[in-house]
Design a protein that fits this description.
Elements: H1 14-28, H2 34-58
Amino acid sequence: MSPDSMAPGSVRSAAELNEQIRALWLRAGGSLSVQERAEYELLVVEWAAAIRGNVIEAA
């Protein structure tokens, strides 16, 4: 899923998403399975959207 195809804004904050990304890496022991990689990619896309939303609000 590309960032442009997501709805504007994010339900979860960038900080919450960052914590979920960190937790995923800790659970995986630094090596992601195919399923974990897919989850990671979705989290990063959502995190980036949340960051963009924060930047736009600040402007």
